[in-house]
Design goal:
The structure holds 2 protein chains of 2 kinds. By secondary structure, chain A is mostly helical. In chain A, 78% of the residues lie in helices and 1% in strands. In chain A, strands 1-2 form a two-stranded antiparallel ribbon. The chains are: A mainly alpha, B mainly alpha. At the A-B interface, helix 5, helix 6, helix 8 and helix 9 of A face helix 4, helix 5, helix 6 and helix 7 of B.
């Protein structure tokens, strides 16, 4: 029941906002739909925590500890982003960058995007997972090009073509998976692509086919995760799209794409053993983390900077999943949570910071503390959190990942440390003058909603200092599922 | 499990012939400069796909495949070429051609890709039933050739045709190697493709408005300083 609500509420929201999205109440409508979705998602999470995994509608939908945690996170960040976007988009409208018609498109596509992500997370069918990922791409293409400037069109085109090609590779991988599954399960209707059914017979799937399938699936969905060398779309899309979209792209879509990769990895490991998939994940993860940390030095645009930081963190998470084992998986899941909370809060403040300064170029943003202390402190604390400073949750997960890497693959630790160190120096040296420095920023024409920023950061802080036992248990169960 | 009828030799021969035609059409697309010709070739690819799907449907006795054949006919032979033609007509880009492409070099690269694709599909072909032996290799080759086309071309419309041709290759892999994906997924994929083309259609006008041309060489401003 809750599951159907989670799936249908955003879809309903899409239709409502497609009709009324240009009205003055549209942002409030957007928030209330996101709130309803969040309530449904929490109820679903409680139910799964109490009664274990759920399989419904002829096994088409499947909820276990792993995906319900992502559903709850997605719904939560979806809600806070909706709250943030109300004043943000109003300011954009006051600045003359958007018209009511564009706002209607924005609100409708926002809900469609949420619906596509929930479908991708909840479906048990590997084919539907692909369809939902493609739908998520298509709905965000229009969001990235919302300003209709040259740069945003270019970014959206790059995003569409690169992710389109990537997702086509994933489809080929899915076809190969079906090809292998058909031999083991028979082509009885739809069942041969159901993840739970595949998981039950994964030992009998033909290893050679699955090996090739995994390469295609990893490259395909990996493009959407933003793994190097297929990451080119990510900084552009983050920099040129409206800020709420950057926040949900970084905070949610990357997680959902990584979720798809991990679901595939679980199947493939059952057939060909852990060696190849884990090595590939570790390789791609390390490459992305190191490459992105060096690219951080060359950024001038604040949102591009944090876009590259997302690539770095997704690389670290992918690496941790590659390490495998209960501790690394636990750390990876924790890092997914804290990264998504922290990064979206950073984008919230970065968006208002560039509105106050009238530019996204970091050289033009100075002295945020002087004009608006909340934005300044939010950006500073968010940056410290994302850089892995101790009291925050990012520190705990990165520490766990590092220690596990030291024990299992000592050779990789220097690379990881280099990536973290370089990223620290690059981001901190940029954020410091933006926050302190001489006063240049102008006050905003409409007061911003910064409650989400501090709620996110407080949660990240809490996860770093004290993790509720129920939550820890939940992560542990999910980590065991991934194997 | 469905009891699949064993394929008779003539059926396999015809399927192989169709597969070869598909590959040939991909090469033809690589060698064409004019957008209009590309759309025609794309429609032909769709026709071949429709034929091969119906043939597989007929000889395997899986009747759902007739629906996917009909879907292919409707979408890839009729609707999409129509939309694309109207788009380039309204954009006044009918006689646009790519001038910067070195066709012989592209063809050579294409040949390499085909060899690579067959090499990659070899181990899987060994375990496949007779019908699918060459099909996976050809499907992969078509995908890679379309990919090559997307990389080498600089016009927005051409890149989209390359993208759609890639989807054709994927569809061929799905029908020939696995007797089709489940219907719901095929519908979902078809819907995504259609929506994608509509969005791109919108895009073309915006790009045209902003850049006064559909040439993607103008779109190289976003990079690292």
């Amino acid at each position: 029941m809750e599951l159907l609500a989670v799936l249908s509420l955003p879809l309903l929201g899409f239709f409502l906002l497609a009709l009324f999205g240009a009205r003055r109440v549209a942002p409030e409508l957007n928030i209330s739909i996101s709130l309803a979705t969040f309530i449904a998602a929490s109820l679903l999470a409680v139910r799964v925590a109490r009664h274990g995994p759920i399989l419904v509608l002829h096994d088409q939908f499947f909820v276990d500890a792993f995906n319900v945690f992502l559903v709850a996170l997605t719904a939560f960040v979806g809600l806070t982003t909706a709250i943030f976007s109300r004043p943000y988009m109003r300011i954009e409208e006051l600045h003359g960058r958007l018209t009511p018609r564009r706002l209607r498109l924005y609100h409708a596509m926002y809900q469609l995007f949420m619906a596509a992500m929930f479908l991708a997370l909840l479906t048990n069918n590997m084919g539907l997972l692909w369809v939902a990922m493609e739908a998520a791409t298509l709905s965000t293409v229009l969001l990235v090009s919302l300003y209709r400037t040259r740069a945003s069109l270019e970014a959206a085109w790059k995003y569409f073509i690169l992710c389109g090609v990537g997702i086509a590779q994933a489809l080929f991988g899915t076809i190969l998976l079906y090809f292998a599954a058909e031999k083991a399960l028979g082509s009885e209707g739809m069942t041969a692509l159901l993840w739970t059914h595949l998981n039950a017979v994964k030992g009998q799937l033909e290893p050679r086919v699955l090996g090739l399938a995994f390469v295609f699936l990893l490259v395909g969905y990996g493009t959407k995760v933003g793994l190097a060398p297929l990451h080119n779309w990510l900084p552009d899309a983050h920099a040129e799209g409206p800020t709420p979209v950057s926040a949900v792209l970084s905070g949610l879509l990357l997680n959902v794409a990584l979720y798809a990769v991990i679901r595939c990895k679980v199947l493939v490991e059952g057939s060909i053993g852990v060696a190849l998939p884990s090595r590939m994940l570790m390789g791609f993860g390390l490459l992305s983390a190191v490459l992105a940390s060096f690219f951080l030095w060359r950024q001038r645009d604040i949102k591009r900077l944090f876009g590259y930081s997302s690539i770095e963190h997704m690389g670290i998470i992918t690496f941790a999943f590659g390490l495998g084992g209960p501790i690394a998986n636990f750390a990876a899941l924790l890092h997914m949570t804290v990264h998504s909370l922290t990064k979206s809060s950073i984008f919230f403040t970065a968006g208002h910071a560039s509105q106050a300064s009238g530019t996204q170029q970091m050289d033009g943003i100075r002295g945020l503390l002087g004009t608006s202390p909340t934005i300044g402190w939010g950006l500073m604390l968010g940056s410290l959190a994302i850089l892995g400073m101790p009291p925050f949750g990012v520190f705990s997960s990165e520490f766990l990942i590092l220690t596990t890497a030291m024990r299992e693959h000592p050779g990789t630790t220097p690379l990881l440390l280099i990536a973290l160190g370089v990223a620290f120096a690059a981001i901190f040296s940029r954020v410091q003058p933006m926050v302190f420095g001489d006063k240049e920023a102008q006050p905003l024409p409409h007061s911003p909603a910064l409650v989400p920023v501090f709620v996110h950061l407080a949660l990240v802080l809490m996860l770093g200092i004290y993790m509720p036992p129920a939550l820890a248990e939940w992560y542990r169960v999910a980590a065991r599922l991934i194997g | 499990m469905h009891l699949l009828h064993p394929f008779t030799v003539p059926v396999i021969n015809v399927l192989n012939l169709l597969a070869a035609c598909l590959l040939l059409l991909s090469f033809a697309m690589l060698s064409r400069r004019r957008t209009q010709r590309l759309i025609t070739l794309f429609a032909w690819q769709g026709g071949i796909l429709c034929l091969s799907t119906s043939l597989v449907a007929y000889s395997s006795g899986l009747h759902e495949l007739y629906y996917s054949a009909a879907l292919t006919l409707l979408l890839k032979v009729i609707t999409l070429p129509l939309i694309l033609r109207r788009l380039i007509y309204r954009l006044g880009a009918e006689w646009d051609s790519e001038t910067m492409v070195n066709i012989p070099v592209t063809m050579l690269a294409g040949l390499m890709l085909v060899i690579f694709a067959f090499g990659l599909a070899q181990p899987i072909s060994m375990m496949a039933t007779t019908i699918t032996r060459n099909m996976l290799g050809i499907a992969l080759a078509v995908i890679l050739l379309s990919f090559l086309m997307m990389i080498t071309r600089r016009k927005a419309v051409t890149q989209v045709i390359g993208f759609l041709a890639m989807e054709n290759g994927l569809f061929f892999a799905a029908t020939s190697a696995t007797y089709g994906m489940p219907m719901v997924i095929e519908l979902g994929i078809a819907l995504d493709v259609l929506v994608g083309v509509f969005i791109l259609g919108l895009f073309f006008f915006q790009i045209r408005e902003q850049f006064e041309s559909l040439d993607l060489r103008n779109m190289e401003n976003l990079k690292e300083e």
